[in-house]
Amino acid sequence: MGHRKINAPRRGSLAYLPRARASRIVGRIRYWPEVEEGPVLLGFAGYKAGMTYAVIIDDEPGSPNFGKEVIQPVTVIDAPPMYVAAIRAYVEDENGLKTLTEAWAAPLPKDLGRVITPPKNDVKENLEKIERYLDKIVEFRVLVATQPKLAGIPKKKPDLMEIKVGGGTIKEQVDYVKKILGKTISVEEVFKEGQFVDVIAITKGKGFQGPVKRWGVRTLQHKTRKTERGVGTLGPWGMKRVIYTVPRAGQMGFHQRTEYNKRIIKIGKDGREITPKGGFLHYGLVRGSYIVLSGSVPGPAKRLIRLRYPARPPGKISGSPPQILFISLEPQQGV
């Protein structure tokens, strides 16, 4: 009998290459959707507190459980107000978007000095420049900073990020950003209950792992000559290099990931009404504003979670909030 050739699908997806560590703890958003409603920030950020479960009335049309009580896992995100530190105006040329100017609030909070050196600029002069070139400006973005001292994490350094302003005309947008510059903005001013959001975050890091755990390859038989937890071959004789599709050991986790269409179940201002007895595991108490999302989000507790208006909303469910019958506040179990 001749040798029987064994075929099998490849182990692990190549769609996520390179599986390298994320460069920053703040997720990068490369796309901002268009919205119809008036000038509004297209994103917000908070810190992952933990998970629990809720009993709600299923309001998805066509669902076999429509109108019935269903149990859903939910994630609680601690979302204190964010400080609007600067306005950034963009113009467009043959190479794409280019910054025209930016106007920083003055004086900036002391904690922001932990992130950047406050730029020396004349706010009034830069705002006048924006007004002069208003016919050339194509979009506005704001630089906002989180306030971790208001959240339940042992951290002083704020996270600084850029968020696009969407909706309305350019004139309406410039009036809006001038109004919020140097002030704080809360999650209730950005999102509403019942709507969908996209979640951008850095996943839980798992360090350096071998090909079995990292790619899911099968272990070899126990009588194999060199290794059991490795790939059977690194490639053909005729190629003097190892091609990128061969599963190799390396970094696993701590990658940026985007999860689409997570529904906002609830937005609240008093975190005590959502905090389990004894606090969230590895996080503690939620004291101020919070968001309850359906399902899970990437990353461990305390991880920065960025939320964005949905890039491809489902459109099946109305924007009204679901009816919540119960949210579990039982003490959380853990090791």
Report on the structure:
This protein is mainly β. The chain has helices at 123-132, 170-180, 211-215; strands spanning 40-41, 43-57, 69-78, 82-93, 96-104, 137-145, 160-166, 184-185, 196-202, 208-209, 250-251, 256-268, 290-294, 304-308, 324-327. The strands form 3 sheets. Strands 1, 4, 5, 6, 7 and 8 form a 6-stranded antiparallel beta sheet that branches. It is globular. The model has no long low-confidence stretch (mean pLDDT 93).
**Tally of helical runs:** 3
Task: Tell me roughly what share of residues is in helical segments.
Answer: under 10%
Q: What general outline do the C-alpha atoms trace?
A: globular
Beta-strand proportion: 25-35%
| Overall pLDDT metric | 93
End-to-end Cα distance, whole Å, is 55 Å
| Count of strand segments | 15
Order of H and E elements = EEEEEHEEHEEEHEEEEE
Q: Characterize the largest beta sheet: strand count, sense, and whether it forms a barrel.
A: 6 strands, antiparallel
Global structural class? mainly beta
Cα-atom radius of gyration:
24 Å
Unreliable segments of 5+ consecutive residues: none
